[in-house]
């Protein structure tokens, strides 16, 4: 195992030229994937990604404004009853829905502290939290989901997102995927 990245021996993190996103590559086998390989230490990987693969300010072409569509970022916490209880952070998620809800409430408090005072050491932006804590693969983009329209997302997510004003962060939203905090970007 790599002591710096937390990836199994032989694996490395690279950046896609077309998507400008990090991915995992094994040069000896030529295996590449978006999700970390089995045997990854999620805590070490999380720290490494936060230090070396921040994607702030990166806006690929798919991020261009489109009529009737909005752009949001989110932070997702999955639980064992989620539709797919696995993520880039954990190959098998065993936390209860109550535990997931408690985590999302903690993140919500950190976001509120950040919004009240960006210099508060206990505060963090939704984007910063999403990069290390979100169970969605959008974590590598600070939770940015790009533009989407009505009918593109799960009903509960879509309704909450379209109610938000630009810059606003939702209260907890419960969907089949898990529990979310959503921030409308555009």
From TrEMBL:
Residues in domain PpiC?
Answer: 67-186
Region of interest (Disordered), residue spans:
24-44, 115-138
A GO BP entry = positive regulation of transcription initiation by RNA polymerase II
Q: Which Pfam families match?
A: Rotamase, WW
Catalytic reaction list: [protein]-peptidylproline (omega=180) = [protein]-peptidylproline (omega=0)
Which SMART domains is this protein grouped with?
WW
Query: Which PROSITE patterns is this protein grouped with?
Result: PPIC_PPIASE_2, WW_DOMAIN_1, WW_DOMAIN_2
Identify the keywords attached in UniProt to this record, alphabetized. Answer: Isomerase, Rotamase
- Drop me one GO molecular function for this one: peptidyl-prolyl cis-trans isomerase activity
Q: Which GO terms describe its cellular component?
A: cytosol; nucleus
Enzyme Commission (EC) number: 5.2.1.8
Does the UniProt entry include the keyword Isomerase?
yes
Q: Which top EC class is given?
A: isomerase
Asked whether the keyword Heme is assigned, the reply is no
Give the WW domain ranges: 5-39
Q: Where is the composition biased (Basic and acidic residues)?
A: 115-125
Q: What is this protein called?
A: Peptidyl-prolyl cis-trans isomerase
The organism of origin for this protein: Lentithecium fluviatile CBS 122367
